[in-house]
Design a protein that fits this description.
The complex is a heterodimer of chains A (698) and B (300). Chain A is an alpha+beta fold and 698 residues long. Helices cover 58% and strands 11% of the residues of chain A. Chain A is built from 25 helices and 12 strands. Chain B has 2 domains: 2-202, P-loop containing nucleotide triphosphate hydrolases (Rossmann fold), CATH 3.40.50; 214-299, Alpha-Beta Plaits (2-Layer Sandwich), CATH 3.30.70. Chain B has helices spanning 40-47, 69-72, 90-100, 106-116, 129-142, 159-176, 187-191, 211-217, 257-265, 279-289, 296-299, and strands spanning 2-11, 14-24, 29-33, 55-60, 63-64, 75-78, 147-151, 179-184, 196-201, 204-210, 218-224, 238-245, 248-254, 271-275. Chain B is elongated and about 75 Å long. The chains are: A alpha+beta (698), B alpha/beta (300).
């Protein structure tokens, strides 16, 4: 006799066994993808002679997303499908296990399969990347975080489906109620906060915190985010890597799992094949499903009621409510298969109407409360500036990094508090008097700034339009601070193996050496001048891009290689480039001509110019950069004539002018060869080219 | 010993079992008959711990059955609607049973499967309904439980198979003291199998008795006199039903047979014959006595 109160290994293995078909199929598909992605990229990179390509978790193993979107719900629905069949349900309930033991043993089998599929396929991905490390570099922490995020998301999905299955008894209702549990709360929050943000543009919706921040829920955040997020696909998927979202989702999954276990223990075997165990729950599911249609209408009606919507949409609302009523009755008809039951459910529509009214008036209350938040300067304890939303950005520069690093800095001086109090009062007045349209029109031009305003009642975030003087005052306070300057010139350390120097194939030693030199030189730079350089005001030789860590965020940082700020690093970079040059000086003109002749046409045997830059060193030692394009007014022959005999392949000494050029050359077999050259240019030749390009306006 | 006290089970407004109190002794075969919807399957599901009673209790040797693995581990249930794991064959199911029931007897499993000619490596989904029932019965019997419940199992088996299964149940009851509870539509099916019989009607237990006692406690007497007589002359005899046609009277009588015959002989009848009653007749008369006016044949 097998006894088990809470968990039984034999039952657990039985669960694993029952899931083996889905499990092994998933594992095979995921593993093949995990191996094929790096293999194909490595082959591609080898074919086109691309340097070491740095890949993050998403690009290395995108199928990980299948764990929570397909595998977790499929496995849960499959293993717990006995709850939908009377004979199967009776069989399982006749077994000598407690209900809790049956549930927990099977639930753990589902969770183990999901985690195993994710972990094994990710491990295979890492191994494959290791094999091809000469061509590819995987950001391992990114993949590990993604694996963890997807595993947690899968647990959340599995526990939600389990919860739905304990209160329903057919596959149709399993799926409907699972969807409601997973998405409805976040969908409702997103709709309602979204419309609040639209009618109150001073609200900083990117700073929503628990429980309003939709990105906290890994599943709803990513799935809904794909459709409605302003952060783009990368920003949306970054939710899966965020620690706070992982913790929140894990806690939510644990709560759902506990609730599902309790309900499973209370569930009657005879609930199988019934849409809901009782009429109350049946009504609850029906009303909740109807609210999915009603919530956007409530949001629109609210928006219109405070002057935010386009107006006169009554007909559309009526149509929506008719559709909602249709959904209400259709659900009852499908689940009960009785017209009489659908007719009897009619009074439930009154509850739907009441909930709609509560939502509309509730939102109006919140609207008024937010608009009423106009503390005086004395009531404001301190303010801080809003940081950079890195989740929506491909990369950030050092200025963004310094803002991010100092986003928690608090300002409590009277001037700052007065500026914020005044701006907030003015914005609220404009919104009250002119509505959102009036507010937007009045503030079409001008600067805005995000603030976190601390008062005795807590912290609220606002994005406020500011008069230019006030804006400049705030900017100077912020950028003039010591910690901002320090952050601006202090390059943060890169995460392991994430240094990317573009097309240049550098060894790890070369890469580390260059980064070390760059870090030292930037530390010596004047913060203000460096801030301008970061904004693109001085010539740059190249750039380095890497992933770093700032608090909870892991942004990708791009740092320019400016000879003015990092001369030694640039010289070393040029020395390495010169050493790796695979174009002889006399071949350069020919390549330039070919690139001019073949242009951007896709021909076999084509030569495409990546870049041709002449850096002219002035008498004051400052560099000026000039770019040549094949389709410009200056021909390759003119350039080639000047270059002839004036170019020497070596790193320039201080005060010398130089050129860098790179080409993508394709042979008849469409094999790519990346060709580069870096060399020192005689001053007179550099000046001649500069004059030509300057005159042609390039 | 399985004991139910005031056992009540409802499905919404419908009362499937209405305050049933009964005792099923160890080492007995307990038969339960009843029409469709009488509550037989619900009774078995409740005493096997599948359903939770809404009121009353079910105990096995004093321990509650509901959610009690130690009791349920001694029980095996063959329902009317059989379930096997998706894609499973008998071997796969036997492995699962072996992991669930420590007493699972693989030798017996192989032995019975061989005797019944079932291919244990063939997918159960390809089996006919009768074969699936056989498979479920084999698995339950191989688990060697102390309590085994069959829900209309015999109704779906052919006569040869039915006898074989009955033989196996007898062996378990005789050798191991197993207690079997069998439900059926057919009284005849249970008549020669069970020690105890119960009749379930509309969720209520209307009759429960030992079969031998039922058969001997009631008998039919045919009596005739050469003179006119009134029924009062049978005073002192426990007559539950009397039917007079001319000079011949047919009586259903309860009580001690010898004593009754002696009393009637003293009345000097010209005809006195004691006839055995079929179980169907006994049930019919018992029902009538209890106020249930229907034909037992409707039930069976």
């Amino acid at each position: 006799m097998a006894q088990g109160k809470i968990w039984n290994p034999k039952l657990f293995f039985e669960g694993l066994k029952q899931l083996r078909l889905i499990g092994f199929l998933s594992l095979i598909v995921m593993s093949v993808e995990a191996v094929l992605v790096p293999v194909s990229r490595a082959m591609n990179n080898a074919k086109y002679s691309v340097g070491v390509e740095v890949m993050d978790g998403f690009h290395a193993h995108p199928f990980l997303l299948l764990t929570f979107t397909i595998i977790a719900p499929l496995m849960t629905l499959s293993l717990f499908s006995f709850l939908n069949k009377r004979n199967a349900s009776d069989f399982y309930h006749s077994l000598p296990y407690t209900r809790a033991c049956l549930f927990l043993s099977y639930a753990s089998a589902v969770l183990l399969w999901i985690v195993a599929v994710a972990a094994i396929s990710s491990a295979l991905s890492i191994l494959t990347f290791l094999i091809f490390q000469s061509r590819l570099a995987l950001i391992v922490p990114s993949l590990m975080k993604l694996t963890l995020g997807c595993s947690v998301a899968s647990m959340l999905v599995a526990s939600s489906v389990m919860l739905a299955m304990t209160v329903t008894g057919t596959t149709f209702t399993n799926i409907i109620v699972s969807g409601l549990i997973i998405f409805l709360p976040r969908f409702a929050i997103l709709m309602l906060t979204g419309v609040l943000g639209d009618v109150l543009p001073i609200l900083d919706m990117s700073s929503l915190t628990f429980p309003l921040d939709s990105s906290l829920n890994l599943v709803a955040g990513t799935v809904i985010g794909v459709f409605v997020s302003r952060a783009g696909m990368t920003g949306t998927m970054n939710i899966l890597l965020t620690g706070s979202s992982q913790i929140y989702s894990a806690v939510l999954a644990a709560i759902y799992l506990t609730l599902a276990c309790v309900l499973f223990c209370r569930r009657k075997s005879e609930s199988a094949e019934r849409s809901a165990p009782n009429r109350t729950l049946q009504a609850l599911f029906r009303i909740t499903l109807t609210m999915v249609i009603c919530i956007p209408v409530c949001a629109a009606i609210f928006s219109e009621s405070v002057g935010g919507g386009p107006g006169n949409n009554a007909f559309v609302y009526v149509v929506y409510y008719i559709v909602a009523a249709g959904v209400y009755f259709t659900y009852e008809l499908i689940t009960s298969k009785q017209i009489s039951r659908a007719v009897k459910s009619l009074p439930g529509l009154l509850i739907v109407a009441a909930v709609n009214l509560c939502l509309i008036f509730g939102m109006r209350g919140i609207y008024k409360a937010e608009l009423g938040f106009t503390p005086s300067a004395d009531e404001i304890k301190s303010v801080s500036l809003a940081g950079v939303d890195v989740t929506s950005r491909y990369d950030i520069n050092m200025y963004d990094y310094a803002i991010l690093k100092n986003s928690s800095m608090e300002y409590d001086d009277p001037e700052m508090r007065e500026i914020v109090s005044r701006a907030l009062a003015e914005s609220c007045r404009q919104l009250r008097e002119g509505g959102v349209d009036g507010f937007v029109v009045k503030n079409l031009s001008g600067s805005t700034q995000g603030f976190r305003i601390r008062t005795s009642s807590g912290v609220r975030s606002r994005i406020l339009p500011l008069p230019e003087d006030d804006y400049m005052t705030i900017q100077s306070k912020f950028t003039g601070s010591k910690s901002f300057s320090e952050a601006l010139t202090d390059l943060p350390d890169p995460l392991k193996n994430t240094l990317d120097w573009g097309e240049m194939k550098l060894t790890k030693d070369e890469s580390d050496l260059l980064f070390g030199m760059l870090k030292k030189e930037i530390a010596q730079a004047d913060p203000e001048e460096w801030m301008n350089a970061v904004g693109g005001s001085v010539p740059t030789l190249s750039w380095v891009r890497y992933v770093t860590s700032v608090g909870k965020e892991s942004p990708t940082l791009t740092v320019p290689l400016c000879p003015e700020f990092a001369p030694e690093t640039c010289r070393k970079y040029l020395a390495i480039t010169a050493e790796k040059s695979n174009i002889k000086p006399d071949e350069l003109t020919d390549l330039l001509r070919k690139s001019e002749e073949e242009g951007q046409q896709t021909l076999s045997g084509s030569v495409f110019l990546e870049s041709f830059t002449v850096y002219v060193c002035g008498k004051d030692g400052k560099l000026t950069s000039y770019y040549w394009y094949p389709d410009g007014l200056v021909t390759s022959d003119e350039i080639g004539e000047i270059l002839s005999g004036a170019l020497e392949i070596r790193a320039p000494a201080a005060g010398e002018s130089f050129i860098t050029a790179s080409f993508n050359c394709f042979n008849a077999g469409n094999q790519r060869e990346y060709k580069t050259i870096a060399g020192t240019l005689r001053d007179d030749a550099a000046e001649k080219i500069a004059d030509l390009l300057r005159e042609s306006g390039e | 010993m399985i004991k139910t006290e005031g056992l009540t089970k409802k499905f919404g407004e419908f009362t499937a079992l209405d305050s049933i109190t009964c005792t099923i002794g160890d080492g007995s075969i307990y038969g339960m008959i009843g029409s469709n919807g009488a509550g037989k399957s619900t009774f078995l599901r409740t005493i096997s711990g599948v359903y939770r009673a809404d009121a009353g209790s079910v105990t096995a040797d004093g321990d509650s059955v509901w959610n009690n693995p130690s009791v349920k581990g001694r029980m095996a249930f063959v329902p009317d609607d059989i379930y096997f794991f998706a894609g499973a064959d008998m071997e796969r199911m036997a492995n699962a049973y072996a992991s669930i029931y420590k007493t699972f007897d693989r030798a017996r499993f192989r032995d019975i499967s061989g005797t019944l000619g079932l291919d244990t490596k063939k997918a159960l989904s390809t089996f006919s309904k009768g074969m699936r029932r056989q498979a479920a019965t084999i698995l339950a019997l191989s688990a060697r439980p102390e309590y085994i419940f069959f829900d209309e199992t015999f109704d779906g088996l052919d006569p040869v198979m039915r006898n074989l299964v009955k033989k196996l149940i007898y062996e378990d009851v005789m050798d191991r003291g197993t207690t079997a509870v069998i439900t059926s539509h057919s009284l005849r099916e249970l008549e020669d199998t069970c020690d105890q019989l119960a009749l379930l009607h509309r969720g209520g237990l209307v009759l429960e008795s030992d079969i031998q006692e039922l058969k001997t406690a009631k008998f039919k007497i045919q009596i005739a006199f050469d003179h006119d007589y009134s029924p009062e002359i049978f005073e002192g005899v426990e007559v539950s039903r009397l039917d007079r046609r001319g000079s011949v009277t047919n009586m259903i009588v309860s009580g001690d047979r010898e004593e009754t015959v002696e009393k009637l002989k003293a009345l000097h009848p010209i005809l006195l014959e004691v006839l055995p009653l079929s179980l169907e007749e006994i049930f019919t008369y018992e029902m009538e006595a209890l106020g249930y006016a229907y034909d037992i044949k409707e039930v069976s």
